[in-house]
């Protein structure tokens, strides 16, 4: 019984971790895109 509960808990935590990792990946990509936009704006501004 306790083993079954531990397995369920472990699977649930693994799923939660996968979801959090996916969210981190999305936010990381968004931040990198924003960084690239800001960098491009700065390069354009300095080129004037």
TrEMBL record:
This is Uncharacterized protein.
């Amino acid at each position: 019984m306790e083993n079954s509960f531990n397995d369920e808990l472990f699977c649930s935590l693994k799923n939660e971790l996968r979801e959090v990792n996916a969210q981190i990946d999305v936010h990381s990509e968004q931040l990198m895109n924003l960084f690239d936009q800001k960098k491009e704006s700065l390069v354009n501004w300095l080129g004037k």
